[in-house]
TrEMBL record:
It comes from the Bacteria. It is a multi-pass membrane protein. It comes from Absicoccus porci. InterPro entries: Polysacc_synth, PolySynth_Transporter. The chain crosses the membrane at residues 12-30, 50-68, 80-102, 114-135, 142-160, 166-188, 209-228, 251-273, 285-306, 381-401, 413-434, 440-463. Its main location: membrane. This is Flippase. The lineage of its organism: Bacteria, Bacillati, Bacillota, Erysipelotrichia, Erysipelotrichales.
Length: 478
């Protein structure tokens, strides 16, 4: 358990850094590049993301699970790694070739920026994060990412000064991803035998295709309908609307990183517990994780909504008022995504129940496409927000209804809805405090402080009264 706590600690530190970095770069870029240029970046990035998706297949989750299954057998881990990586290498080369065709034969606008996005694909060529996730060595991935992220921020602030510097921003963002992944190869020899590449078996490589595809199909559908919003906005609306959505989505994705970080850490642990037959321990950990995620996600969603009216003009500057409503309307997705992430990473994938995952994601993707098609042309970015919310909700509900046949978790979710009431109370009190000020950083400071204290006090009182297990984690244990 101490190793798990350390990994959660590393991941938490990294996600806090990820939270702080956009707080530095987003307002700067909103003023320097403007909504339209950010829309161009977001649109071209959404296109290359499709190719990156096919390059990686389901390797991140499948590779993590398969490496974790190898346990401490270094020889087996080495052979498994190389067989999976060769498959990843082949898929990436194919994706790069197809993307090159897209650039030369299909792409007609912003071709230069689209070309510079290719570093994301090159990053997939050398991405072996899944190896370190599988052996639960998160310190290496976190420390490396922290250094690269900090350096990229410094470069952005130094070099990106005007709208025409969009190409520099693109190189920094895509290039840092490539560099971050490439550096991991210097540490790979500590976990695997590099010479084991001579033992690769094409038969074993082929054997990894089917289970990889099983995880890739839902990942593809899920990623597609996440990327789909920006792509359809670019096609059916304007780059400015893409820019508004891009910035609102960026604010919401800051705390989402913390929620997904927990899932990344828990996947190999849950896989190990299931393999060792510790099913009751895995069940208790899963149910506790559901409540913890709801506690954190509700606080984030209600907190962001409560301060968005003052935060948006202060953070992005003039001309981004449309983002206020987008942020408020999009904030419930934090709770929905948090629950979906827990289901996927802590139960469905470790227990090899990918079919439920696949069904839920395809339902969500279909709903998202239909809602986007009808609403984006009429409502612009707001239509994309509605499409995201409906799609995420449909996907999440499907997962838990199906999953409840194997593990009783709906009761935990319903009981945890009390935190939504606490969130609404916090929201109301924060808005009352906001009336005492006329905007500005002082108002934001007191709003945030009020929200944190209010929610924390209510939760602590509730945990004490109900003798909730969480109170032991928060107060008694260090």
């Amino acid at each position: 358990m101490s190793k798990l706590k350390k990994n959660l600690g590393y991941q938490t530190i990294y996600q806090i850094l990820n939270t702080c970095i956009p707080l530095i770069t987003s307002p700067y870029l909103a003023r320097v590049l403007g909504a339209e240029k950010q829309g161009v970046f977001s649109y071209t990035q959404s296109i290359v993301n499709y190719f990156t998706l096919f390059a990686m297949l389901g390797v991140v989750n499948y590779g993590t699970r398969t490496i974790a299954d190898c346990g401490k057998d270094r020889g087996k881990r080495s052979r498994t790694f190389w067989n999976i990586y060769i498959l990843q290498l082949c898929c990436t080369v194919i994706s790069i070739s197809v993307y090159a065709f897209y650039l030369t034969q299909i792409c007609s606008q912003n071709t230069y920026i689209a070309f510079l996005q290719i570093f994301y694909l090159l990053g997939s060529l050398v991405d072996i994060n899944w190896l370190f996730f599988g052996v639960e060595k998160f310190k290496i991935t976190v420390s490396r990412n922290m250094v690269i992220r900090i350096c990229s921020v410094i470069l952005i602030l130094m070099l990106v000064r005007k709208p025409s510097d969009l190409w520099i921003y693109t190189v920094i963002m895509s290039g840092s991803t490539f560099l971050s992944n490439a550096i991991l190869w210097f540490f790979a020899s500590k976990e695997i035998d590099l010479k084991a590449i001579k033992e690769i078996s094409w038969f074993e490589i082929v054997s990894h295709i089917k289970p990889n595809l099983v995880l890739f199909v839902p990942l593809m559908a899920m990623s597609v309908y996440h990327i789909m919003d920006k792509t359809m906005l670019g096609l059916l609306s304007t780059y400015k609307q893409v820019g508004y959505y891009y910035n609102a989505d960026k604010i919401i994705n800051i705390p989402i990183g913390i929620l997904t970080g927990v899932g990344t850490v828990m996947l190999p642990r849950m896989t190990s517990l299931n393999k060792e037959g510790k099913l009751e321990e895995a069940r208790k950990l899963f149910l506790l994780s559901i409540e913890l995620i709801i506690v954190v996600a509700v606080a984030m969603a209600c907190g962001i909504s409560a301060i968005s009216k003052e935060f948006t003009p202060f953070f992005f500057g003039k001309g981004y008022d449309e983002c206020i409503r987008l942020i408020i309307d999009l904030s419930p997705v934090l709770v929905i995504k948090g629950l979906s992430e827990i289901a996927r990473m802590q139960y469905l994938i470790p227990n090899h129940k990918e079919k439920i995952f696949i069904e839920s994601v395809f339902c969500g993707a279909g709903v998202n496409f239909v809602v986007n098609w009808f609403l984006i042309s009429r409502l612009g970015a707001l239509g994309a927000v509605i499409g995201t919310l409906v799609a995420e909700l449909v996907s999440c509900v499907w997962q838990y209804i199906k999953m409840n046949k194997y593990i009783s978790c709906l009761t935990t979710i319903f009981k945890s809805m009390i935190y939504v009431v606490f969130g609404v109370i916090m929201f109301t009190i924060v808005r009352v405090v906001a009336l005492c000020f006329n905007g500005g950083i002082v108002a934001l400071f007191f709003e945030v402080l009020t929200g944190i204290i209010t929610y924390a006090v209510i939760c602590l009182i509730y945990w004490k009264v109900t003798k909730n297990k969480i109170v032991g984690l928060v107060i008694k244990k260090k």
